[in-house]
Design brief:
The complex is a heterodimer of chains A (274) and B (396).
Chain A: H1 2-5, H2 8-34, H3 46-49, H4 59-66, H5 68-100, H6 107-119, H7 122-135, H8 142-166, H9 171-178, H10 183-212, H11 215-220, H12 228-237, H13 243-271
Helix pairs in contact in A: 2-13, 4-5, 4-13, 5-8, 5-10, 5-12, 6-8, 8-10, 9-10, 10-13, 12-13
Chain B: H1 2-36, H2 40-44, H3 46-53, H4 63-79, H5 82-92, H6 96-109, H7 115-122, H8 129-139, H9 145-150, E1 153-155, E2 161-163, H10 171-201, H11 205-220, H12 223-234, H13 239-246, H14 262-285, H15 291-298, H16 303-331, H17 335-340, H18 348-357, H19 362-387
Antiparallel strand pairs in B: 1-2
Classes of the chains: A mainly alpha (274), B mainly alpha (396).
Chain lengths: 274, 396
């Protein structure tokens, strides 16, 4: 390998990859310092570059944390996200257990159906949901949003739990049964603890999907149900204010926490395996 | 015994199947239905439409049909449904909006039989055979109108399919543009992603893992963070322009327009989709032993030749998977073109949203959506056939 690793080609590759990483990371990192801008601009002021403390402020964070709009948006995001995640995780986990059984009929078709919400472009899903839910009077309600976000999040749970089931030793079920445990008890005491990394990471993905989603919210939510992405949308489209930078920094924080949680779960499920 | 565990497995999946069926498949179905089924005219003018069903279209309809139309237009005005009727008819035949609403207004004040004379006096369009034929056409519940419009076609009064007038031809070019943009983005992702995935896959394992996490960050970080950051960077008063001015590359009065155009859409979408490409390539490249390249070069092959004959063919499954995935995803992107793309960077999805929210031409939105849906579905069937959907994983 080293034979063609050294030399000018290898250096060109390194420089290229360095630039590619810069392209991937820099836009995200640049938001964080800019969110402390004292001026309502989207660029570094002279004061910021000379590290003048007066050029930095927490005013945009104040606006996001104390402003009525962002607070109600955060609450809505939490209500919709958590309910949709619970629904998606419960249904998705149970379905994945069925899909993992060797006796499952029509597995390929059913899997395709269950992960279809992840595949269909969101604009199409949102248009259909708007038509369908408005005929049921579910637009501009929390119920409508929660149901749609649960449908969009369920595929993530199905995929992660199916993957976790692949490493599951089914003799444990027989062992539990031979010791006299019923199916429900076996599920809660044996299967769920072993599958929990898969279930939790599925839930995190489902929550992240809801946290990101705006198109369904744009089509279906009323003023009452505006979520954080909806406020970001308004912030970018209607009145550009650096408050969206502060909100984005919070979203980065949440994403980092989610990624760390996933990483920990990954380690735990790896160490649990032979 | 086998039968029992089959039923058991199916029963476990059933709740989610039912849930997805109701909350997701039914909505898709209702969109597809709306793209060709439009009962609006038949509901507002039921008797007229029924009478026109028996009319042969050869000459102006008889007095009875005129009378029914007058009665039902009057009713529609009283019910306040006449506006929707006028809009719907106008989409079929431009100009009918004012005919319908104007006649409705006059009918509210005056008018008496014989209607076959009274209606043409109120608006001479009612003495025009073409208008009656258009009305008969619009009365059909199952209509090809929206699909025709979505392909820049329309029906003329003889039920023949003709091109839209030049100024109204939008959508064929739009589909071509959407596919073109998706292709360019796919190639850009491949061009950047291939060397990157190579570098990560053949780094020492620990460093490779860390680099892979860096690639995953844009995927893990919210779409909103990425979009916002590109707006910050690419604006005329933004960071990138300021940097270029500071470096003396451009003058202050010649700031580059990097967003609200195609450039913005490309840059931001490549940023969002590159991780998918790298992941697809990486998972294949990791399985190609570097020893093979060494063996090839020790047998005297120069690097390009060794790469072309030994490495590239083995990495092709990753190239195929990555390209197909990125292409499919970029066909459906909406938020980035809407926020960064400006006027010229708009794609099919954005026009669907426009007809959903602004023009309220839901039938056309549904037809455009159905066409996009079928395209994406076919591509995914291809993906499934070639690579298997069950191989789709999240993360590493």
């Amino acid at each position: 390998m080293s034979a063609w690793r050294a030399g000018p080609g290898a250096w060109a590759l390194r420089v290229f990859c360095g630039l590619a990483f810069l392209f991937l990371m820099a836009p995200i990192l640049i938001i964080i310092p800019l969110s402390f801008n004292a001026e309502p601009y989207f660029t570094f002021t002279r004061g910021m570059l000379t590290l003048d403390p007066d050029a930095y402020s927490l005013r945009w964070y104040e606006q996001v944390l104390l402003g009525e709009r962002w607070r109600s948006a955060a609450l809505n995001t939490l209500i919709v996200g958590v309910s949709a995640t619970l629904l998606a995780t419960t249904l998705g986990t149970v379905a994945a257990m069925g899909l993992s059984s060797p006796a499952m009929p029509w597995r390929r078709t059913i899997t395709a159906l269950l992960i279809s919400p992840m595949i269909v472009p969101i604009i199409i899903a949102a248009a259909g949901m708007f038509f369908f839910y408005s005929s049921l009077n579910l637009t501009q309600t929390y119920t409508g949003l929660i149901l749609s976000h649960a449908a969009l999040g369920a595929p993530f749970v199905v995929i992660t739990v199916t993957a976790a089931m692949a490493g599951f030793n089914s003799e444990l079920l027989l062992a539990a049964a031979s010791l006299g445990a019923g199916p429900v008890r076996t599920f809660f005491k044996v299967q769920l603890p072993i599958l929990s990394p898969g279930v939790i990471s599925g839930a995190l993905f489902a929550f992240a999907a809801s946290l990101d989603e705006v198109v369904v919210v744009l089509f279906m939510a009323g003023l009452e149900q505006r979520t954080i992405p909806r406020e970001m949308w308004a912030g970018i489209r209607e009145e550009i204010s650096p408050a969206i930078l502060a909100a984005a920094t919070f979203l980065i924080l949440i994403a980092v926490l989610l990624l760390l949680a996933l990483e920990l779960l990954q380690r735990r499920s790896d160490s649990g395996r032979p | 015994m086998m039968g029992k565990s089959r039923t058991q497995a199916l029963l476990l999946s059933l709740p989610l199947i039912a849930f997805i069926g109701i909350t997701f498949v039914a909505p898709l179905g209702s969109m597809v239905l709306r793209s060709f089924y439009d009962p609006l005219v038949a509901e507002i003018l039921p008797k007229t439409v029924a009478a026109l069903g028996e009319w042969d279209g050869g000459a102006l309809p008889p007095e009875g049909v005129y009378a029914l139309l007058a009665e039902e237009l009057r009713q529609a005005r009283a019910d306040r449904t006449i506006g929707r009727l006028a809009t719907r008819l106008n989409r079929q035949t431009p100009g009918l909006r004012s005919v319908v609403s104007g006649t409705g207004r006059r009918l509210a004040r005056q008018g008496e039989p014989p209607w076959a004379e009274a209606l043409p006096r109120m608006n001479k369009a009612w003495g025009d055979l073409e208008v009656w034929r258009a009305l008969a056409q619009a009365g059909r519940r199952v209509t090809p109108t929206y699909y025709l419009n979505a392909l820049d076609l329309r029906m003329d009064a003889d039920s023949g399919v003709v091109q839209q007038p030049e100024a109204k031809r939008v959508y064929r070019a739009l589909f071509v543009k959407t596919i073109g943009v998706a292709l360019v983005i796919t190639l850009l992702c491949l061009g950047i992603g291939y060397p990157l995935a190579w570098f990560i896959a053949h780094s020492p394992p620990r460093r490779g893992q860390r680099l892979l996490v860096l690639v995953l960050v844009p995927l893990g970080v919210s779409l909103w963070v990425c979009t916002t950051s590109w707006i910050v960077l690419l604006q005329q008063q933004g960071v990138l322009n300021n940097l270029l001015i500071w470096a003396g590359v451009v003058a202050d009065d010649q700031r580059l327009t990097l967003m609200h155009n195609m450039t913005g859409t490309f840059v931001a979408m490549v940023h969002m989709l590159l991780p998918f490409m790298v992941l697809s390539l990486y998972s294949v490249m990791r399985g190609i032993p570097p020893v093979q390249m060494q063996a090839a070069s020790s047998l005297g092959a120069k690097w390009p030749r060794a790469f072309r004959r030994v490495y590239l063919p083995q990495s092709m499954p990753g190239v195929g998977a990555g390209c197909l995935l990125v292409f499919i995803l970029s066909m459906g992107y909406y938020i980035i073109p809407a926020l960064v793309g400006g006027q010229s960077g708009q794609l099919t999805s954005n026009f669907i949203a426009y007809h959903m929210q602004a023009s309220l031409n839901w039938g056309l939105a549904a037809a455009l959506g159905s066409i996009l849906f079928v395209a994406v579905l076919l591509l995914f069937l291809l993906y499934d056939r070639v690579l298997g959907l069950d191989r789709m994983r999240l993360g590493s």
